[in-house]
Amino acid sequence: MGSVYPGIPTVLGKFLQKEYDLSTFIETGTWMASTALWAASFFQEVYTIELSEKIYKYVSDRYKRVENVHFICGASSSELSSILVDGFRPALLWLDAHWSDGDTGGENMPCPLLDEIKIILRSNPEHIILIDDARLILVSPPKYIRETHDLPSYVEVLNVLDSSGPRYTVMWRDVLISVPNSRTDSLNSFIKAQGDLVFFNLLDPEPGSNIGIRAIIGYWGRAFRALRCLPGAISRKFHAGVREIL
Known about the structure:
Elements: H1 10-19, E1 24-28, H2 34-39, E2 45-50, H3 53-62, E3 69-73, H4 76-83, E4 92-95, H5 113-123, E5 128-131, H6 134-138, H7 143-149, H8 154-161, E6 167-172, E7 175-180, H9 185-194, E8 198-200, H10 232-245
Parallel strand pairs: 1-2, 1-4, 2-3, 4-5
Antiparallel strand pairs: 5-7, 6-7, 6-8
C-alpha cells in the first residue's frame, strides 16, 4: 500500500508480465484488493495474502466472483511457503505486507520482508520480486516509522536477495525491482524509456553506464540522509556515481 504510488505501477507490472512470460501474480498485503483486481486482468492466477482478518473478510466477500483471484488470510511467510512449492514456475511477487498504521495487520509483529524473500528464492531463484515502499528502506525515515514499522535496511534486503546467487536490483519510483542477473537489458531499456529518476543497485552499479545513479528520491526531502545508513565503501560508490552523472 504505497503512499507515493498507490499499488503496483501498472506500466511496470504489464512490462514484467510480458517480458518474462509470467502467468502467476502473488501479493502480500491485500488491503482493499486494488492491486489484486488489476492483476486479475493480466495474469492467469492471482494469490493475495492478508494478515488482518477484518480486511480479508471484507475484500474476499466483496470480490468473491473474481474467479482467478485467491484471497488468503494469514501470515505471509507461512502462506507463501504453502503456495511456493519447490520448482514453482517463475511468478511476479509484489511484497507489501508490513504494518501501515490503522487497520492494517501486523502492528505487533516484525516486518516479514526478509523471511518472504528467503521463501521466494528457495522456491525458484527465477522469480521476479517487487518490493513496495522502497523509500522506507533506502532513506532513513522519521523516528516513529523506524520504531513502529521495524523495517530492514537497504543493505540487509540486498544481501538476502543475493543469498541464492547475484541478482540485479534497482529502485524505480517507490519500488525495488529484483530480477535474475541473466536478463537485465530489457529492464534497463524500460526504465530509461520512462524518463523517471532512478536509483540503481549501490552494491553493483552498472559499469560504464550513462544513467548510473541519478538521484535518491527522498520522500521527506532529505535524500542524502540515506548515506547515513550505508557503509562507507558504498557511500563512496554513490558519490562517484553522482559525480559521473553530473
